[in-house]
């Protein structure tokens, strides 16, 4: 990595810098002329110099030069103009010079901006490229939040400085020198005064700003450390809550913020002191010009035009000079930041860039054995965790690695998966060192999975297929406008040193997964999901999801058939009472009061419970039907019962799980509200109080809560209000509420609600599990299982996959590795969160599933339970970093050794 920022900028932008410097040089000509023109206007047409007699004229725009070897050449004789005409002509020239100088500035600034943004893009990409090439051990020493902050924020000023690195000193210095030379030409002593002040500013101000640079560096470091600490708090929030250390973290953050405040306050004080001195020096010079220049004008040693021109020229001198000093400060500040970036990212040894080169062609299988020779691994403290291990693992064998925690078994597997690098010794395959193999080979032909999982923010499918996205496989189809836009973006990427790979291409290697394309990909995925026992989890996610019928057309078309098949199946199995179907003319006792009243679903987020309750039509319906007073009285009863039964229970008591209408935190609130409303009628309560009480009744289900608050009369009244609600519903509300219909799909309802078209009876034990099992069989029977699975695969896993359970994450991680169909599978205790019975089942499924149809990849599995080793061809037993025993299961189980002890 280039150590000097100036050399880095020149190396990557020298042609553009030379061009813009040439433009800057050309801009100095009209800039100088704009200084001289006011003098000509004042002395000539205004004061009458050269227009002594009436009707006198002068030549305007006479263009003639004495050229070497050629002699005098006249290009234009010029125009004869009188005094007024000359005034107008010179004024128009001055205006033209103003416009020309402005256009030069516009072009230079625009060019600088584009140059800076390209450089910012280049340096950010290069830093991320280096992160991708860091050695594995380096990630244990750095905080991800600090790295992200440096790439996002700390290199930002470097982009802006790129355009100014060479252009600004040339432009601003050229303008300052031009103005200074012009002043000296007009009057030597005034020029010397201006030069002296400029010299003081150029020497004193930069020296004073060194303190600013040091404070800026400290501010940058403390801000970065704060970012890293905040990242640690977010990642370790569970540990903080579990150990009651939230106030310790608050104290730590307050201390860091105090340090930043102190630095920034010192920075502001010093900054404005420097600004005060700079402004003072800038204002002293006009005083001297007016005093001394006026004196010289009174003496006749300086004409008025010259004095006006000098003052006008000096007016343009402090601006470039101040900006030049600011540029010097920015240069030093950016260099300090670049030095910090250099120190953070100049890591050795980096992974060779050739190892990560793009490979679009298929990669052939690995046919050689894993040969491990004198392998030695150490942890961060230097302690050896694997000590001179030598072993050979053949391409088609299954190897179980066992040993107690800290035996070195896990570290050995990490070395095979290239997660750690050896201190000494070698791992070779096909005679080539594992660390020298391109990732296009190791990333496709060797699969590694451990208990540590990580998933990117996105869908479950995108994370599952992540191991198949090695290179763009097919080009996207663009229309003419999109093609031009992509061409422009590609050209800009190339100029910034970025790759021109199209993210919109299809990157999934379907053949590697055993599919011919996206059409049959699910058929290749499903056996893998079944093997790791995650299919039912994905099915459950699909059942809880809403369905886009424009994408999943078959489900929308078959929903009525599914409902009928479910009813028939339940009737055949004697379970017809397990689901209470929706009926527009009847009250559904298993649904909430609110669901019965609405008899449909709301299109969220456009419509919510609060917005519906506030709608004038809904409020009018409540008044006309008298439901307001009925549900208010019902809500009061619910509140009284809940407060009486649960006010003494701790907040984490399981009884609160049955309260859908109230949480443990709401108990004190409603307790106080009941005391307030004890002797007040419905009319005396405020609208907010009524709403709080009525809201309780909306979530009430008689068979679940059993307070005896739903007489038949009230249920009939709710059904009657429901009919009135839908009969006269206004158009704006009808667009946001989808009424239940037994003959059609309801897009805003979940898939399970659509298939059930009713509610599961709460009295039936394990009813939900039995229903989901039957639904899975029905989807299979109607050839809809893949469609439903694809809906579950669209589930957003959240940041780091945290919306999934640890069990689901480990299963998904294993499925992702299996989907690549590699030659070597390395599993490093990948299912530690699962119970032993499920681990045994998944292990057996994987071994049997991978070793069929003539394909027999090598499987290397670090086991949590030594008894599982019976399924493998060979066993490697580790103890204290060394290979203690090796052999097959019958040999080692009969031998009185360490393996036999692990079995007992």
UniProtKB/TrEMBL annotation:
<keyword id="KW-0547">Nucleotide-binding</keyword>
<dbReference type="InterPro" id="IPR039421">
    <property type="entry name" value="Type_1_exporter"/>
</dbReference>
<dbReference type="InterPro" id="IPR003439">
    <property type="entry name" value="ABC_transporter-like_ATP-bd"/>
</dbReference>
<keyword id="KW-0812">Transmembrane</keyword>
<feature type="domain" description="ABC transporter">
    <location>
        <begin position="370"/>
        <end position="902"/>
    </location>
</feature>
<feature type="transmembrane region" description="Helical">
    <location>
        <begin position="280"/>
        <end position="298"/>
    </location>
</feature>
<dbReference type="GO" id="GO:0034040">
    <property type="term" value="F:ATPase-coupled lipid transmembrane transporter activity"/>
</dbReference>
<dbReference type="InterPro" id="IPR011527">
    <property type="entry name" value="ABC1_TM_dom"/>
</dbReference>
<keyword id="KW-1133">Transmembrane helix</keyword>
<keyword id="KW-0472">Membrane</keyword>
<dbReference type="Pfam" id="PF00664">
    <property type="entry name" value="ABC_membrane"/>
</dbReference>
<feature type="transmembrane region" description="Helical">
    <location>
        <begin position="87"/>
        <end position="108"/>
    </location>
</feature>
<keyword id="KW-0067">ATP-binding</keyword>
<feature type="transmembrane region" description="Helical">
    <location>
        <begin position="176"/>
        <end position="205"/>
    </location>
</feature>
<dbReference type="InterPro" id="IPR027417">
    <property type="entry name" value="P-loop_NTPase"/>
</dbReference>
<dbReference type="Pfam" id="PF00005">
    <property type="entry name" value="ABC_tran"/>
</dbReference>
<dbReference type="GO" id="GO:0005524">
    <property type="term" value="F:ATP binding"/>
</dbReference>
<feature type="transmembrane region" description="Helical">
    <location>
        <begin position="15"/>
        <end position="33"/>
    </location>
</feature>
<dbReference type="GO" id="GO:0016887">
    <property type="term" value="F:ATP hydrolysis activity"/>
</dbReference>
<protein>
    <submittedName>
        <fullName>ATP-binding cassette domain-containing protein</fullName>
    </submittedName>
</protein>
<dbReference type="GO" id="GO:0140359">
    <property type="term" value="F:ABC-type transporter activity"/>
</dbReference>
<dbReference type="InterPro" id="IPR036640">
    <property type="entry name" value="ABC1_TM_sf"/>
</dbReference>
<feature type="domain" description="ABC transmembrane type-1">
    <location>
        <begin position="75"/>
        <end position="326"/>
    </location>
</feature>
<dbReference type="GO" id="GO:0005886">
    <property type="term" value="C:plasma membrane"/>
</dbReference>
